[in-house]
UniProtKB/TrEMBL annotation:
HAMAP family: Ribosomal_eL37
GO biological process, one term: translation
Family classification: Belongs to the eukaryotic ribosomal protein eL37 family.
Protein name, entry field: Ribosomal protein L37
Gene: rpl37
High-level lineage: Eukaryota, Metazoa, Chordata, Craniata, Vertebrata
Origin species: Xenopus tropicalis (Western clawed frog)
SUPFAM superfamilies: Zn-binding ribosomal proteins
Pfam families linked to this entry: Ribosomal_L37e
Length: 101
């Protein structure tokens, strides 16, 4: 009679999952060709409301936010065009337009 325990574990020697190209976790299923963590190759990232902690780990603000932190800063100063301040001193009053931004 075959057992479900120790002897069965010795037979597991072929890989089902490998590294995902998008999220980097070892959850990309080779036969299904989908990632169990991020849902790659689907366009939208895998995210469910039944796991609040997982959403918290992967949401905006957990990474570098190279572009967004600049946008937030510019939003607070109402997107001031620094070019405009320079242009106001050069262009005569009759020909000034905001399109110089």
């Amino acid at each position: 009679m075959p057992t479900k325990g120790t002897s069965s574990f010795g037979k597991r020697r072929n890989k089902t999952h490998t590294l995902c190209r998008r999220c980097g976790s070892k959850a990309y299923h080779l036969q299904k060709s989908t990632c169990g963590k991020c849902g790659y190759p689907a366009k939208r990232k895998r995210k469910y409301n039944w796991s609040a902690k997982a959403k918290r780990r992967n949401t905006t603000g957990t990474g570098r936010m190279r572009h967004l932190k600049v946008v937030y800063r510019r939003f607070n100063s109402t997107f001031i065009c620094h070019n405009l301040i320079f242009l106001l001193h050069i262009i005569p009053k009759g020909k000034r337009t905001v399109a110089g931004c």
